[in-house]
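Tokens for chain A. Residues wanted.
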């Protein structure tokens, strides 16, 4: 988004240069006072009670402010028009089970603050001039929660196929690739059980997380687990795989676009953001339930059919940075004009 709006200032609650992308260092970043508390920069959830008042106390003087929000940033005060680009509505209010998981302290804090955060969130939403969602599933969720009109603008796939490639991993081509954080809801264990039904295929899993050891204990010996791979190594994996598999419910289905940029199809859960990025029968296949049987059947289908690499690459190109930037700037210009003429 910063590249789409190169002349814009960036406002954020926390900024720790060593913990984010190095490209951020070239941006004009304005932080809130809570950023001065070093412990909060590395443990964001400790700041939970402070975030709503911190954003409410922030005033941005601009013709148009774009708030990239997952529940907080749309609460800033603005002198001009306000656009909310929604990654998701506040999970601590509307999807508490998914947000808190087994963490009782997080659940207790969210429940205790809900009587304050609910009205705060709706007041913030009422101050927004235009809403944009990153996927159809988030678009529908915002509509249902707030009864507002919502545009759809998918984020760009920024992982380029024409970058450097590192072949040092030494994995034979033709494997099934799974790129995911190793968390329970990602259903990587389901993918592992599915691959046991197709023993002629090797599974390569890229990601790290608390489920790593459990998943390794479930996987066939031929399975390769990788973490900390470089972009150049990941390009080699996308190039050499025969297909990508993803079995989680995602708000946006990014990894199939990365695979498509290399001409590789995907087998994905027919749910959430994957419905926006994978066309069944054209750029991959979908399965209705995250079960070993359904995933195994999808793997057999995706590896037995013939796929058009040009069609896959063309699909990835429709989610390019250029397309995203052009549409975002169009929405900004329209919103600013409507504000001036209102």
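Reply:
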């Amino acid at each position: 988004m910063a590249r789409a709006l190169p002349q814009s200032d960036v406002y954020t609650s926390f900024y720790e240069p060593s913990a984010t992308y190095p490209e951020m260092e070239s941006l004009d970043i304005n932080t809130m006072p809570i950023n001065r508390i070093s412990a909060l920069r590395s443990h964001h959830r400790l700041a939970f009670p402070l975030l709503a008042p911190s954003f409410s106390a922030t005033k941005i003087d601009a013709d148009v402010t774009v708030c990239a929000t997952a529940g907080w940033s749309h609460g800033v005060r603005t002198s001009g028009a306000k656009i909310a680009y929604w990654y998701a509505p506040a999970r601590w209010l509307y999807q508490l089970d998914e947000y808190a998981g087994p963490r009782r302290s997080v659940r207790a804090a969210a429940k205790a603050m809900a009587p304050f955060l609910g009205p705060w969130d709706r007041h913030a939403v009422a101050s927004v001039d235009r809403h944009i969602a990153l996927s159809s599933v988030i678009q529908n969720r915002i509509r249902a929660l707030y009864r507002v009109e919502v545009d759809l603008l998918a984020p760009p796939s920024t992982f380029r196929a024409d970058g450097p490639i590192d072949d040092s991993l030494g994995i034979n081509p033709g494997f099934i690739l799974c790129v995911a954080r190793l968390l329970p809801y990602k259903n990587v264990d389901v993918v592992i059980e599915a691959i046991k039904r197709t023993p002629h295929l090797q599974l390569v899993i890229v990601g790290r997380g608390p489920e790593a050891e459990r998943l390794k204990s479930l996987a066939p010996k031929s399975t390769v687990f990788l973490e900390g791979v470089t972009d150049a190594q990941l390009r080699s994996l996308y190039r050499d795989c025969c297909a990508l598999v993803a079995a989680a419910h995602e708000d946006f289905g990014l990894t199939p676009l990365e695979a498509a940029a290399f001409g590789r199809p995907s087998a994905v859960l027919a749910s959430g953001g994957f419905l926006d990025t994978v066309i069944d029968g054209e750029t991959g296949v979908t399965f209705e339930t995250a079960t070993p049987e359904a995933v195994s059947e999808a793997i057999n289908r995706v590896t037995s059919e013939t796929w058009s690499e040009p069609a896959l690459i063309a699909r990835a190109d429709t989610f390019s940075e250029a397309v995203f930037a052009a549409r975002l700037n169009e929405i900004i210009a329209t919103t600013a004009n409507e504000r001036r003429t209102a």
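Residues 10-156+321-341 form one domain. The chain has two domains: 10-156+321-341, 176-317.
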